[in-house]
Amino acid sequence: MDELVDSEAPVHVRQWFVLHVKPRTEKKVALFLRTYRCFHHLPLYLKITKVQRRKVKHELPLFPGYVFARLSPEDRVGMLKTNLVLSTILIPHPRQTIHELRQIQHARFGAAELRPVAQVFKEGDQVRVKFGPLRGTVGYVKRKGANATLCLNVEILGASVEVSISPGDLEPAR
């Protein structure tokens, strides 16, 4: 998804994994994956902080400690040898996970602010965005007074991402 360069291994041999990596090594693991010429995706979000009256922009991992990758058995062993990967989790339903990640990627470019949240929201209404750059995106609604927040889930990680949105832009998902 981030890297469209592919490894030499045949397509039927490569599988999608979630790489559980050591703290603050996500970008370094993505660099190794680029070196191995593997499909990978590291969702990032922009965080702006103030340091001595200046605004400093940081791109941080949306899911700290995790990188998504499509690996052959040899690539997986090579990544484990880097000593940056703690474990690999086979993604049982890659199409669903890729769809969830694409929705988050779409939201990242269409939303003013994207931020990680602690848990997956199962309660509340499942909604679809009717208007704007996120049109067609499906998620769960969480209300804060008159404002609504759309929660996009990544089931395999048990994590969600919040996007602020106008309640008038939402409709029930079918």
Characterization of the model:
The chain is built from three helices and twelve strands, in the order βαββββαβαββββββ. β9 (138-144) and β10 (147-154) form a beta hairpin. Helices cover 21% and strands 41% of the residues. The strands form three sheets. It has a six-stranded antiparallel sheet with strand order 7-11-10-9-8-12. A four-stranded antiparallel sheet has the order 2-5-1-6, covered by helices on one side. It folds into two domains: 11-91, Alpha-Beta Plaits, CATH 3.30.70.940; 97-172, SH3 type barrels (Roll). The chain has 174 residues and is of the alpha+beta class.
Short description:
This protein is α+β, with helices and mostly antiparallel strands and 174 residues long. The protein folds into two domains: 11-91, NusG, N-terminal domain (Alpha-Beta Plaits); 97-172, SH3 type barrels (Roll).
Shape: globular
- Which CATH architecture of the largest domain is right? 2-Layer Sandwich
Text of the CATH class of the largest domain: Alpha Beta
Order of neighbouring strands in the sheet with most strands: 7-11-10-9-8-12
- Total number of β-strand segments? 12
Note the main sheet: 6 strands, antiparallel
Strand-residue proportion: 35-45%
CATH topology of the largest domain: Alpha-Beta Plaits
Low-confidence stretches: 3-7, 119-123
Name the CATH superfamily classification of the largest domain. NusG, N-terminal domain
Give the % helix. Answer: 10-25%
Query: How many separate structural domains?
Result: 2
Order of helices and strands: EHEEEEHEHEEEEEE
Compute the average pLDDT.
83
Summing up helix and strand content along with how strands pair, one would put the structural category as alpha+beta
Number of helices: 3
Distance between the termini: 28 Å
